[in-house]
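pasting for ref
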Amino acid sequence: MLRLRAEERSVTEIAAAISANTPVSVPTVWGILHAEGIECLSRRPTGPAPRLDPVRAKALSSWPAGSRFDYDHAGLYLLLPELVALRFDELVGGARYPSTRVLSSFHSLGSLLLLKCSRHGRAANGFPLGADPGLGDNLLGLSALPRATHLTSYSYRVKRQANVALLEAISRRCSELDVYSGEAGFNLDVHTIRHHGDEVPLEEHYVPARSQRTRSVLTFFAQDHASTEMVCANADVTKAEQAKEVFSFAEYWHRVFGQDPGLLVFDSTLTNYDTLDELCGRGISFLTPRQRGSRELERLAALPVAAWTAYHLRRAGRYRHPQIHEEMIELKGLGQFLRQIAIRNIGHDQPTLLVTNDLPTPVKDLFGRYAERMMIENELDADISGFHLNALSSGLPLNVDLDTTLTVLAGNCYRLLAKSSPPLRARSRRSPLPPRRKTLCRLRRSHCDESRRHRGGRLASAFRHVHALAHVTILPSSPPEVR
């Protein structure tokens, strides 16, 4: 170590040279040198920082056949067959997204989708992916990915009508590819995306993560219950329009598939009695909790023991033996009777009340179905950690409605990849993961573990497949069809 220092090596160079045989950190090297009375080296003359020539994003006039490229984000190529299966270029063209004189709507939306699927933090993903020549050249037919300035300004040119048209086309295509069908019903929920910054003209909504009301954007999500896949999103929601989102989704699904959706499960704060009455008049089944009033709790407490029926639920965990009492009630403002389900012995001090217009389904199944409504909250948590859904204020600000639409599309792409790829098998200690792959898997371990618990092992494997590939060489032979 002293000999290397005599050659005017820096502590970083000394640590790298010694670590070839014995691992040693930079602070350790500096501590030893400082103990020997050796001071820091004088600053080396460096001159101006090297600058790369700017590359403007534009469509390629010819395909670079026969060229070789080393890509830092080659794992995104695994999503290319899924984009072809979804007919992404046709969906974007049919949704009538805006274009510019240089870039088409396919180029702009494709660039935003690549940034979303990369699952890097939005504050730092624009430059690393934009500097990777393979993503623009061979995936989108561009000289380079557009800069953050274009992506931000383009997102605010997009209207809500275009996002709705894209979501409708995605739903039809995913139904054809057997990704989801909606037969098992849907989970509905709202999510608040908090704004971190100066005062902005945004409404104040309750943010559960902060346990306070603050300026934020209210978003609505609908999740297919059977596949746990998001099927619809809307970030153009205000306080006055929140109660109508449930019925708006029912109309959206009827417009896409020609029939009303299955059982809708949502929280009581999402809508009001007027919307429930509209759902009853339309014949759409719903299941939602009811606020526990003091009089209703006193009435339930006065019921005899024989009025409560004990059930056994076949599931892991505690509270598998709930006691349920059901009856028909009439709520003010509704034109028909509803089925009220009171559940106790599930860890709460007071009984939980559910109301529904679904009369044929057994009460035990309805209680289990409502307990599974938590899957949409787990999915939103996965989208926050994986697709950075909460990045309202970041280095790459985007229109929130377009960002939520791309979140749905990115999730569908990964779902298709999960269906077509086998799950990763656990390796033995004799064949560990390569260092680069091990690092990438460790960075996504938290989200992969979350996905394995809530979305299945195949989807977690799809995430790992995409982010484990790095620095592979691809020899293009023919250009893809870009519209």
